[in-house]
Recover the amino acids of this structure.
């Protein structure tokens, strides 16, 4: 597979990956891919990371949640071989998805119904690789800024493992945090950047409607529950769309509607579930009150009582401008300015956003599509895979960011 070469005019930076380390990281990623673990169950993954970091002379610490870990590189007091200032955190998510792996490769998942179908195995390997390179530079006294590696569990579990990680103190002493996310629409060897919101907020919504049922011959003596549920399903998204600025992109989308068991019986209960997505952070903060009010309004109009379970998921990831510039400059230094492209805001959710509620930072889209491919396999598919050259690119991106 052919990939873009480093820009020969780019300034030289230490930390380029030797061939042996590149091969080791590919093997490490494939091992993770073969042994995917769901959120808060990542015991094997955590042990593998801990072992490799300890062999590099580092002292990783498993999180209090039992999976995931943090590992500091460099001191913060300017001692010989150390660095001065607040830490730069490099974050990876380590969990997999509950879907089967349908690829025909020798590193396919060995766990039925489990797959790394979102690229978290790549994210994890990238942060590990960057840590190994930066640890060696720290031993040489060439690390200008202390770094924290953060391997976070349970990104795929709402409201995300990031919130628990913050409670565990992973941001103590951290002044900035960076992450990457695999993007199958971007070629390997390139990254996508955006200042401001780069993902969407995502919450979960469960609604139960109740009222007196009865015979379909006499709906006037009942709460016509099927009609009530149908009106909630149709009218609530429309009401929400008229109560916030359209640019906020606040949208309620239903994935389930259930009611009744017989054609001549008006049921006493109906249930709906769906998601609430939002492009704007301010509108997301208003969303629970707006959604509750709209559901109650429509349900009451049709004589139904509503019970609403609104589960907060994640806010949008809002990239801070200086952190985006750091990623831009790091990538340009490694692979030239042409390796950086603009990216659009995604409607997907990412719990990296919880860290940005506390410290500035940014997430980059890491290209994983083989150059020359006209199509791409989307995330959360059983046949999703990556061009593994992206691992080298991600490691060198993070390494350069820590050195600039």
């Amino acid at each position: 597979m052919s990939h873009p070469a480093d820009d020969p005019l780019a300034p030289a930076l230490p930390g380029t990956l030797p061939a042996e380390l590149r091969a080791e990281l590919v093997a490490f990623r494939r091992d993770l891919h073969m042994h995917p673990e769901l959120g808060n169950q990542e015991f094997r993954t955590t042990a593998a990371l801990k072992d490799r970091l300890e062999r590099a002379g580092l002292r990783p610490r498993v999180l209090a949640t039992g999976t995931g870990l943090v590992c500091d590189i460099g001191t913060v007091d300017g001692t010989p071989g150390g660095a001065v200032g607040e830490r730069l955190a490099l974050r990876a998510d380590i969990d997999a998805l509950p879907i089967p792996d349908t690829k025909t490769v020798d590193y396919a998942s060995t766990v039925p119904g489990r797959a790394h179908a979102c690229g978290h195995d790549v994210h994890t390997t990238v942060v590990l690789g960057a840590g190994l390179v930066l640890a060696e530079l720290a031993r040489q006294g060439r690390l200008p800024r202390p770094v924290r590696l953060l391997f976070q569990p349970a990104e795929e579990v709402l409201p995300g493992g990031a919130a628990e990680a913050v409670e565990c103190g992973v941001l103590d002493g951290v002044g900035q945090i960076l992450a990457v996310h695999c993007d199958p629409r971007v070629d390997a060897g390139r990254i996508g950047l955006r200042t401001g919101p780069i993902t969407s907020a995502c919450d979960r919504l469960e609604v139960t409607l109740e009222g007196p049922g009865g015979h379909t011959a006499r709906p006037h003596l009942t709460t016509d529950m099927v009609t009530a549920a149908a009106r909630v399903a149709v009218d609530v998204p429309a009401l929400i769309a008229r109560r916030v600025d359209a640019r906020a992109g606040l949208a309620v989308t239903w994935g389930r509607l259930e009611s009744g068991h017989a054609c001549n019986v008006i049921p006493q209960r109906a249930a709906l579930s769906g998601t609430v997505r939002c492009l704007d952070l301010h509108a997301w903060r208003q969303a629970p009150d707006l959604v509750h009010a709209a559901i109650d309004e429509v349900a009451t109009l049709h004589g139904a009582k509503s019970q609403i379970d609104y589960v907060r998921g994640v806010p949008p990831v809002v990239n801070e401008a200086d952190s985006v510039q750091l990623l831009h400059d790091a990538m340009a230094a490694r692979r030239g300015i042409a390796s950086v492209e603009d990216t659009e805001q995604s409607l997907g959710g990412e719990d990296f956003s919880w860290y940005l509620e506390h410290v500035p930072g940014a997430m980059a889209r890491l290209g994983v599509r083989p150059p020359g491919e006209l199509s791409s396999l989307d995330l959360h598919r059983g046949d999703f895979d990556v061009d593994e050259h992206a691992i080298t690119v991600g490691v060198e991106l993070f390494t350069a960011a820590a050195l600039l």
The chain has two domains: 19-198+317-403, 201-314. Residues 4-12 have pLDDT under 50 and may be disordered. The radius of gyration is 24 Å. The CA atoms of residues 152 and 225 lie 44 Å apart.
